[in-house]
């Protein structure tokens, strides 16, 4: 689900003059009554502009999507609820993809009731002990369904049943639902002699006017909230149904030119409707199948062809930059945690004032002390970044190396462009963004308070400045050291090299050597194309080596699937006794370790999302097909072609026709399955 919390206006009511004007407000997003996100706190405004987007998976069935607006005060222990907007799941389609203003409703125990109740009511005529006749009202709650979850757990429910008389008098009864059902008795009598808790007097002609309410609501003008909700449910078919579309997407990195590939076509036709959001499932699918690196290299090369000045390299929002951004967010989570989380925790806990703007200084602030605090924080953050090369994910290093090479080739006269190409991502789009919004990268649970948020903003801006090439003109070595280390040295340790060709094993057959691994090469060995056998110092080091080597080689197209665990001695392999030295290995190589990447990727679901984006943009796909046909006939760029990137109209036309056939076939599978099922979806 994609949510956009826009703004609120006229928040209230207030019990005193300008009461809410002195409070800070924030908005939370809840599935049923379980909070999943919250915005940052906005200071002293009854019409705050939130302007935040949230994209998240829905892991469980739900009934209601709710938005709560709270007032936060320094003098109150608990946040004060102002109002809420609740949208039932079955009503989400009414608001999907459109901005709407919603009136805030009051937040009270009654308004938080959700679910269905199976209710039975009877009105029986009884003769009392003194011979008078009375009516007995029996209310029985047989069962409840769909009760909300509180923090993922079952709630502790109770029911309040209200009996409203003809003169608007009210009788309430509250009972906890500890069992699956309960029965409630009320006696409606003509006599006033009964004063019991469940007895009351009512005229016979008024009995039919009695009302029973299980919920009571009030109406107040609490303000309104502007929201944009995009909700989709993924109706995932059996895996074989997606084979054709999946294979077509996985073939994208090999298509020449890259603009004629299915992945690039998807980004082109969806750009106007959903921006580049359609590229996320493409990135995840290619990542799972180790096809992302060649695709990113190709789209980056295409963008560089259209870049005229080196100082604007990768600065805009394009297909290439969006794909690389998504890649960094997926594979770089643990990298950010290791690099930034310790220093961010220190910033949140120490809460030192860092304001240096004279206009924003508070009474008693010392600008020199604040400047020292800011410099200290920036130094710690920047040092953590520059010393983080060993934690940088191999795929990010591979992509950065490709960007350096492409930038140097595009602007050979500029010796610094290879570093600015990388810094535009690693500093401006990765570390600076994570410092500014740590909650987005799960580095903190919630938004910081306004003062810490201001500190993070100052640190982030400084990191962006330090990450720009011009600001490092006096300290270029820092940039070069970071980038070069980030894409080179990964492991460097002493090992024992085993000699080859000797019949006996002994101490003389093992020599100490320093072995170095980078993401480009493994050294040491003296002869090219000859196997190197080394022995780590212990089992822990062995596992460390295997993990590092597996990560580094996972994108290597020449990676072997088998190996010989022993040496070739005396005309045969000691492990399997095969005499042919070129015989394939007898043991499988260690599986590539992608635990933190692949386990969260469901390729069928990602392909279904790709299908959904294509299906919602079939009209744009048809226009692109017509544009290709027009370019082929008239041999040139036509006006209707300006909305698309078409380098080779014939190849692009061929891809679109193939896409059309695949999409039609997949749609037929969906049609045969019928309506969507009530399963967790995507928000």
UniProtKB/TrEMBL annotation:
The record's annotation in Gene3D superfamilies points to: C2 domain, GTPase Activation - p120gap, domain 1, Pleckstrin-homology domain (PH domain)/Phosphotyrosine-binding domain (PTB)
Q: Which UniProt keywords apply?
A: GTPase activation, Metal-binding, Repeat, Zinc, Zinc-finger
Organism superkingdom: Eukaryota
Outline the extent of the Ras-GAP domain. Answer: 282-468
Zinc-finger as a keyword of this entry, yes or no, is yes
| Annotated SUPFAM superfamilies | C2 domain (Calcium/lipid-binding domain, CaLB) (SSF49562), GTPase activation domain, GAP (SSF48350)
* Domain spans labelled C2: 1-102
InterPro entries on file: C2_dom (IPR000008), C2_domain_sf (IPR035892), PH-like_dom_sf (IPR011993), Ras_GTPase (IPR039360), RasGAP_CS (IPR023152), RasGAP_dom (IPR001936), Rho_GTPase_activation_prot (IPR008936), Znf_Btk_motif (IPR001562)
Q: Name the Pfam families on file.
A: BTK, C2, RasGAP
Question: What is any one GO biological process for this UniProt entry?
Answer: intracellular signal transduction
Q: Name one GO molecular function term.
A: GTPase activator activity
Q: Which PANTHER family match?
A: RAS GTPASE-ACTIVATING PROTEIN 2 (PTHR10194:SF21), RAS GTPASE-ACTIVATING PROTEINS (PTHR10194)
Name listed for the protein in its UniProt record: RAS p21 protein activator 2
Species annotation: Cyprinus carpio (Common carp)
């Amino acid at each position: 689900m994609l949510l956009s919390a826009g703004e609120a206006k006229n928040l209230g009511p207030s019990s005193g003059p300008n009461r809410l004007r002195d409070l800070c407000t924030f908005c939370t997003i809840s599935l049923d009554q379980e909070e999943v996100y919250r915005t940052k706190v906005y200071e002293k405004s009854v019409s705050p502009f939130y302007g935040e987007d949230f994209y998240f998976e829905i892991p469980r069935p739900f009934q209601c999507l709710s938005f709560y607006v709270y007032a936060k005060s320094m003098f109150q222990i608990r946040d004060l609820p102002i109002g809420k907007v609740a949208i039932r799941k079955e009503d989400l389609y009414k608001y999907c993809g459109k901005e709407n203003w919603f009136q805030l409703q009051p937040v009270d125990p009654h308004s938080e009731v959700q679910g269905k109740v199976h209710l039975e009511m009877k009105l029986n005529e009884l003769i009392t002990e003194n011979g008078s006749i009375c009516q007995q009202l029996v209310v029985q709650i047989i069962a409840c369904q769909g009760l909300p979850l509180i923090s993922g757990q079952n709630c502790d429910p109770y029911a309040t049943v209200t009996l409203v008389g003809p003169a608007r008098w009210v009788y309430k009864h509250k009972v906890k639902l500890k069992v699956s059902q309960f029965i409630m008795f009320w006696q409606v009598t003509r006599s006033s002699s009964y004063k019991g808790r469940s007895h009351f007097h009512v005229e016979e002609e008024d009995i039919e006017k009695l009302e029973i309410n299980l919920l009571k609501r009030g109406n107040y003008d609490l303000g309104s909230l502007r929201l944009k909700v995009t909700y989709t449910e993924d109706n995932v078919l059996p895996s074989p149904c997606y084979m054709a579309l999946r294979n077509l997407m996985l073939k994208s990195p090999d298509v020449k030119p890259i603009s004629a590939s299915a992945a690039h076509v998807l980004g082109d036709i969806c750009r106007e409707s959903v921006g580049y959001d359609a590229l996320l499932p493409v990135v995840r699918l290619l990542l799972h199948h180790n096809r992302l690196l060649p695709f990113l290299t190709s789209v980056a090369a295409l963008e560089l062809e259209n870049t005229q000045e080196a100082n604007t390299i990768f600065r805009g929002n394009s297909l290439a930059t969006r794909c690389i951004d998504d890649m960094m967010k997926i594979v770089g989570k643990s990298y950010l945690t290791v690099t930034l989380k310790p220093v961010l925790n220190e910033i949140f806990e120490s809460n030192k004032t860092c304001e240096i703007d004279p206009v924003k200084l508070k009474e008693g602030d010392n600008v020199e002390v604040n400047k020292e605090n800011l410099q200290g924080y920036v130094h710690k953050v920047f040092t953590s970044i520059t010393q983080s090369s060993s934690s940088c994910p191999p795929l990010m290093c591979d992509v950065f190396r490709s960007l350096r090479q492409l930038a140097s080739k595009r602007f050979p006269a500029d010796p610094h462009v290879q570093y600015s190409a990388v810094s535009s991502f690693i500093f401006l789009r990765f570390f600076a963004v994570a410092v500014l919004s740590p909650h987005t990268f799960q580095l903190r649970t919630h938004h910081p308070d306004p003062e810490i948020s201001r500190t993070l903003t100052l640190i982030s801006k400084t990191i962006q400045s330090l990450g720009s090439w011009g600001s490092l003109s006096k300290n270029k070595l820092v940039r070069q050291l970071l980038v070069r280390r980030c894409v080179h040295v990964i492991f460097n340790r002493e090992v024992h090299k085993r000699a080859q060709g000797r019949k006996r094993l002994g101490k003389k057959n093992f020599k100490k050597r320093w072995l170095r691994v980078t993401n480009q090469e493994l050294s040491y060995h003296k002869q090219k194309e000859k196997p190197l056998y080394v022995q780590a110092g212990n089992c822990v080091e062995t596992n460390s080596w295997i993990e590092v080597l597996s990560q580094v080689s996972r994108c290597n197209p020449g990676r072997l699937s088998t190996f010989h665990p022993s040496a070739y001695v005396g005309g045969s392999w000691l492990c399997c006794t095969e005499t042919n030295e070129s015989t394939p290995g007898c043991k499988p190589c260690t599986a590539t370790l992608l635990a933190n990447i692949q386990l969260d990727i469901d390729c069928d679901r990602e392909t279904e999302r790709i299908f959904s984006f294509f299906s919602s943009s079939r009209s744009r796909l048809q226009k692109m097909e017509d544009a290709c046909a027009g370019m082929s006939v008239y041999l040139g760029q036509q006006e209707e072609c300006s909305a698309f990137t078409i380098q080779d109209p014939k190849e692009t036309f061929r891809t679109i026709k193939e896409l059309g056939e695949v999409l039609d076939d997949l749609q037929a599978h969906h049609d045969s399955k019928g309506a969507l099922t009530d399963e967790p979806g995507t928000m």
